[in-house]
Every structure is written in structure tokens, then in C-alpha cells.
Specification:
elongated, mainly alpha, 8 helices
Length: 213
């Protein structure tokens, strides 16, 4: 969830667009408003359709969409960073659409569904410890990514950072596709059996069979 760079992108979007040539404070504020509206709208979409479509389809939609959005944002940023004189307007528009798409897909998938899975995958006897560990790792990774984002971006440019985050989302999408089963409508007993580690269950095809009975 946090390795996607969502928090860092939200924190430093004004810096990104300032480097892209948008210096007007009202326009920068407008970008933040658009991002906020996108997040709010698509969080509601996820809330209404989570139990209808299931966790797995929305999570895959979200991570694949984030990967595409980050690739577009990296491409737009690369052209903006390489431009001399006036910045190409199309690249600014592409970057703006990509940022709004990125936070929208996050709000459909990783944002809410991370916490749904975190509350379901642990057996009852370990649920408190598992949830505490999940939250701790989540916040530690969030802090690490947020604190290193600008330093890394200054070394490899904003475009390079977005391409790295895109790669992380591609890996995440592949991992979720092969190893994360659907949990919609399953009882606690079924959930414990689904995530119980057995030697014969280590092959990804076994997980796919369980995810699509």
C-alpha cells in the first residue's frame, strides 16, 4: 500500500508541478482540490461495490491502474524536465490527469482493500498481533517513502522516481494475481482454512484454484 508512493505523491505534488512550470499558487491549490475530489469520489465507489464485485477484482483494477497512471506521470514529467523555455502544455495536462487517476485507482484498490484484507487474513488467535504488525509496517513504510521521496527524486529526477514506483506496482499486481485469493462471503472458518500454510499449497496454481472455485 505505502510502497506505491501514494502519500509521497500527495505530499509533494505541488513541488512536482512547480518544477513542471506551474508557479501560480491558485493553480497549485486547484490541483490539490482535484486530487481530493478524486480520492473522495472513488473511495465511495469502492465502498459501494466492494461486496458486489469482491476484493480481488477491485484490488487488481486499482494496482494495474496505478501502474499505468505512474507510467504516464513519469512520461509527462520526463518531457517537462527535458523542456527548455516554455513547458509543453500537453505534458502538463497528461501529468495532471495521471496524478488524479493515480489517487483514484488507489482509492478503489489499495487504499481501502488493504485494511479489509488485514482484518480478514489473520486467524482469531493472532488477529490482534497481526493487525498491530500490519499497521506498524504500513506507517513505517509510509514515513520512509515520504522522507526519501525528494532526495531520491533529486538523484534520479521525478520521472525516474515515478517509473520506479510504476515497477513496484507491476510487481504488486503480479503478486496479487497469483497469491491473493478472494475472501468475499467467506466465514471465519473458511478464511482460516484458505490462508493456512500447507506444503501442498505453496504453488501459485493452488491459490488460483482456491480463489476461483
Amino acid at each position: 500500500m505505502q510502497a506505491s508512493g501514494n502519500d509521497a505523491v500527495i505530499y509533494y505534488t505541488p513541488e512536482v508541478f512547480h518544477d513542471a512550470g506551474i508557479h501560480n499558487k491558485k493553480k497549485l491549490f486547484g490541483v490539490n482540490v482535484l486530487m481530493g475530489l478524486s480520492k473522495t469520489t472513488f473511495v465511495l465507489v469502492s465502498a459501494f461495490y466492494l461486496d458486489k464485485f469482491g476484493r480481488r477484482p477491485l484490488l487488481l483494477l486499482g494496482t494495474i491502474g496505478m501502474a499505468v497512471a505512474l507510467a504516464a506521470l513519469g512520461l509527462g514529467s520526463k518531457f517537462l524536465e527535458g523542456a527548455t523555455g516554455s513547458k509543453p502544455e500537453w505534458a502538463i495536462i497528461v501529468s495532471l490527469i495521471a496524478v488524479c487517476s493515480f489517487v483514484s485507482f488507489f482509492s478503489i484498490g489499495l487504499g481501502p482493500i488493504t485494511w479489509v484484507y488485514s482484518s480478514e487474513v489473520f486467524p482469531l488467535r493472532l488477529r490482534a498481533q497481526g493487525a498491530a504488525l500490519a499497521i506498524s509496517v504500513n506507517r513505517l513504510v509510509s514515513g520512509g517513502v515520504a522522507m526519501s521521496f525528494l532526495s531520491v527524486s533529486h538523484k534520479i529526477t521525478f520521472a525516474g522516481t515515478f517509473f520506479v514506483l510504476c515497477g513496484i506496482m507491476v510487481v504488486a499486481s503480479v503478486f496479487f494475481y497469483f497469491y491473493l485469493p478472494e475472501t468475499k462471503g467467506k466465514t471465519l472458518e473458511e478464511m482460516e482454512e484458505l490462508f493456512e500454510v500447507r506444503e501442498k499449497d505453496r504453488h501459485p496454481t493452488r491459490v488460483m484454484e482456491m480463489a476461483n472455485p
